[in-house]
Amino acid sequence: MSWTKDKAYEKLQEIYTDKVMQDEKRRIFQQVYNHLHEHLDDLAVKSGLKEDSLKQLKFFKEYTFMPGDNLFQSMRYVFLLARGEREREPQETSQHLSRIYRALFQPAGLKNPYIPESFWKTPLGVACSVAEDGVESVYPVLDEVVEAEAFESN
Q1: Please, what is the angle between helix 90-105 and helix 18-42, to 10°?
Q2: Percent of the chain residues topping a pLDDT of 90
Q3: Cβ-based burial of 109 (10 A; exposed 0-12, middle 13-18, buried ≥19)
Q4: Confidence of residue 99 (pLDDT cuts 50, 70, 90)
Q5: What is the DSSP letter of 108?
């Protein structure tokens, strides 16, 4: 398909429904939560999370909203950019992307995150691509989506 910026954002708005964004936040939350528990074991402080914190984390997982400046606010920011919202400041976008990459892909001891190629096919990965390189960078992914939709409708 021959994409324009407007057509691409229109398709991304169709794809990035509130449900898709919430499901992706829940998926990422579970990954980060599991990672946190693994590291608590590594540090021999498995019971390092207090009961109040566990209750709060359960609430966050259920409602996919955490107040303040955090990973999930950064995800929201890049999702909104993918849906066609205007970038506020390039520096702010860079900070949000750095937070996402650091939280998900920077192991202890490495200076830079290692981002697996499979990430760029996830809803969050596509949104990060749009935020980082513009909507033109995801035209091939949108082609795949349109092909899959055409296949499903036949």
Answers
A1: 50
A2: 51
A3: exposed
A4: very high
A5: T
DSSP secondary structure, 55-66, as one string: HHHHHHHHH---
- How many Å apart are CA 69 and CA 96, to the nearest integer? 9
What span, in angstroms and rounded, lies between the C-alpha atoms of 145 and 127?
Answer: 14
Burial 68-98 (b: 16+ CB within 10 A, else e): eeebbebbbbbbbbbbbeeeeeeeebeebbe
Nearest residue to 99 via CA among 131, 122, 121, 123: 131
Specify the pLDDT at position 150: 86
Q: What is the mean pLDDT of the chain?
A: 84
Amino acid, res. 23: D
142: tokens are: 């949108």
